[in-house]
Amino acid sequence: MEFWKINGNGNDFVTIETLASPLSSAELAAAARRLCRRRASIGADGLLVVEPSGSAHFKMRLFNADGSEGEMCGNGARCIARFAYERGIAPAEMSFETLAGLMHARVEGRFVEIDLGEYSFENGWIDRELTMDGAHFRSCFLRVGVPHLVLFGHDELSREDKVRIGRAFRNSFDLFPQGTNVSFARPVDRSEVEAVTYERGVEDLTDSCGTGCTAVALSASLLFGMSSPIEVHNPGGTNRITFDRLDEQKFRARLGGNTSVVTKGEVGPDA
Description:
Helices cover 19% and strands 47% of the residues. The chain is α+β, with helices and mostly antiparallel strands. The termini are close together. 46% of the residues are buried.
């Protein structure tokens, strides 16, 4: 099996295409668990798969490192768009299916921007106080393809604190029946935010999360009056979120940032 290793600001993926011979969901889940093991295999946050589509240039499937299938991933969508363009599967301006709906992307060299469409806080919340392990946060919650809890406050938390608190909120099924991703955010100035995300499925902090960056930017615009575009700095790099506010709770957002093709190769039998 041929693969490309691609990352979007440090959020890394093993990327394959199965256009001629699709694999079952069970086979892809098992492949993700095996291939994403760091040190023991290729290592990645997830497995991206290009499948045939009857309504777009291709269909994107995302399997997290634990084998669970995700509805969407912003950085993953940017990485798979570059993969599809460079492999001749799709043109520079393309559309592709995801479990969260149809996505549109534009590839300009390493920079890839995706139109995420419309998102609303209507079924989530804006500026609710939450407490975990004695730490108090201002929070927002919405779905950006996948559920995202954004926490502002307690900038002094260590990495270990964020992992512990992120995991606790991720598994607070009374609040989040499907679990949730958890982003810890801090405004830097009127157009920049620092953030790191505990990702559901990876079950750890990741170097970058595209949908997390989008959730952070939209939340910051509501809580702190920040305007588009907003740069969100993750440990792995910076994503640029451009958005239009459609009403009090609804936005149309675009996510842009760099991608890196790290290596290409064949999966070995021991992996």
